C-alpha cells in the first residue's frame, strides 16, 4: 500500500520524490537498527555467561589442585619418623587421611567442658548424721535435716522421731532458700525483714510455685568447697532458730566444707 502511494506521488509530482523516499525508508531503517541492537545484546550476554563459566571452572580447578598438593604433601610427610603419642606418627597419619573441613572440626572448641565439683551422697549423709548427733549432744529438741545439692535436688533427709509433721517441710524450705539465693536463710531474714517484707513474701510465693520450698528463717546454711564453689545447702528445723543454724553449720563443717555463715551464733 505504501509502494502504491509512493508511485502515485511520483507520477503526480516528480519534485516530491526525495521526501517520499525518506518517509518510506526511515521506518525500515529504524526496525533494522532495533533488530541488530537486540541481537548484539544477546550475543554480549552469551559471551559474559561463557566467560563467567570459564572463570568459575578455572577457580574450581585451582581449588582441586591446591587440595591435591595438600594431600600429596601430607602423604609424603607421613613417611618421616615421628614420635608416637600426641602429635606423633599416629596422629600425623590420621590427619593425612582427613579433609580440610575435618581438620577444622578437630580444632573447634569441645562440646562438653569440665564441670564444677559436686556434693556426693556420702558427704550429704555424713552431714545430716553429724547435725543430728550435735542436737543430741546439746540436748536440743528433735530436729529434721535436709541436704540439697547445687541443683536443688534433695540428697538426704533425716528426721528425728518426735518432730512435729511440719518441721521437715520447714527444714526443706530453709535449705531451699539458701541454695535458691546462694546465701544463708539468716542473711535473707536480716536483709528483707522488716523493711522489705512484701518482697520476701513474693520470693516465698515464687519459690513455692517453682517446687522449691522457701523459708527465710535461720537454719538454712549454704555449703561451699575450699575453692568457694557452691556445693549445696543444709537446712535444719525443730529446735530454736539459732540452735537449728548451729546444728547445720556443725554438720556441713564435719566433712571439711565451708559454710555461710561461717560461725554459729551460739557461744
List keywords for this structure.
267 residues, alpha+beta
Average of pLDDT: 79
Give the strand content: 5-15%
> Uncertain spans, ≥5 residues at pLDDT below 50?
78-98
Secondary structure tally, helices: 9
Number of strands: 5
The rounded Rg comes to 44 Å
Spatial ordering of strands, largest sheet:
2-1-4-3-5
Q: Approximately how much helix is present in the residues?
A: 55-70%
Q: What global shape is seen?
A: elongated
Largest sheet: 5 strands, antiparallel
Helical/strand content category: alpha+beta
- The helix/strand series, from N terminus to C terminus, equals HHHHHEEHHHEEHE
Distance between the first and last residues' Cα: 127 Å
What is the fold's blueprint, element by element?
Layout: H1 2-12, H2 17-77, H3 89-96, H4 100-106, H5 121-137, E1 144-149, E2 154-159, H6 167-181, H7 185-192, H8 197-209, E3 220-224, E4 230-237, H9 241-253, E5 258-260
Helix pairs in contact: 1-2, 2-3, 5-9
